[in-house]
Design goal:
The chain is of the alpha+beta class. Among the domains are: about 60 residues; about 90 residues, 2-Layer Sandwich (GMP Synthetase, Chain A, domain 3). The strands form 3 sheets. Strands 1-3-2 form a 3-stranded antiparallel beta sheet, with helices on one face. It has a 3-stranded mixed beta sheet with strand order 4-5-6, with helices on both faces. A 3-stranded antiparallel beta sheet has the order 7-9-8. A hairpin with a 6-residue loop joins strand 8 and strand 9. Helix 1 packs across helix 6, helix 2 crosses helix 4 and helix 5 crosses helix 6.
Length: about 220
């Protein structure tokens, strides 16, 4: 059974950091609180929360055939949705390295509709993906694994964020000083957590409440 121990100022932050490293949802794990956080007296004797997170069950592995079917259903749903919105675009399911992307591509490179579908900081795109996953899940009676992308926004965002996170993690490892990143959505925070997890000397936790929730990269205790 795969498990990981994480510490953070709060139990919630420690759990989120562990989930980001394991790449699973909270429904797929068992959480054991090893230590509750304490503030200490005048800042002395303070201690962070420590949790042990165990993967209860690994996510069901989908065959390539299953992923292709999900991609086709997702594309059909998106085509209908975009038509009702009056947006002209091509929807193409694409299997890349075991991940099923459903790409929405505008017919005009300067089409403002694509920007509207992405939204500020990708928020509209995240909502579009959730709608699509729900539709696929209901149609096929299984958990949807498709990723909806508009004009490769998510691919570019993932690549940029991962590179920046690695750079920050290496700097924190070198200087020993923690760094706070700007507020991010859940998708962005997970990309950062995954990238930082590859640098042995550091760790990452999330702090704050949405929409101001952000990642902190710090030396590993």
């Amino acid at each position: 059974m795969e498990e990981i121990r994480r510490s953070a100022p709060s139990v919630e932050e420690a759990v989120e950091a562990a989930l980001g490293h394991l790449g699973v949802s909270e429904q797929e794990v068992e959480v054991q609180v090893l230590q509750e956080p304490r503030q200490g007296l005048f800042g002395l004797g303070a201690q962070e929360a420590v949790v042990l997170v165990r993967v209860r069950r690994r996510r069901e592995e989908l065959s390539e055939e299953d992923l292709v079917e999900q991609g086709e259903v997702a594309a059909e749903f998106l085509e209908g949705l975009l038509a009702r919105m009056g947006i002209s675009a091509t929807v193409e399911p694409t299997l890349e390295d075991g991940t099923m992307y459903v790409d929405v591509i505008g017919e005009d490179p300067d089409d403002e509709d694509m920007g509207l579908l992405i939204g500020r900081r990708g928020q509209t795109l995240e909502a579009l993906q959730e709608l699509t996953r729900v539709a696929v899940g209901q149609r096929l009676e299984t958990r949807a694994r498709v990723i909806v992308d508009v004009e490769e926004y998510k691919r570019r965002q993932r690549s940029r964020l991962a590179a920046r996170a690695r750079e920050i993690a290496q700097r924190v490892a070198r200087t020993g000083r923690e760094e706070r990143l700007e507020p991010m959505n859940a998708f962005e925070r997970k990309v950062v957590h995954d990238a930082v997890a590859l640098i042995p000397a550091v760790e990452s936790v999330s702090e704050g409440e949405d929409p101001e929730r952000r990642v902190v990269v710090r030396p590993r205790a």
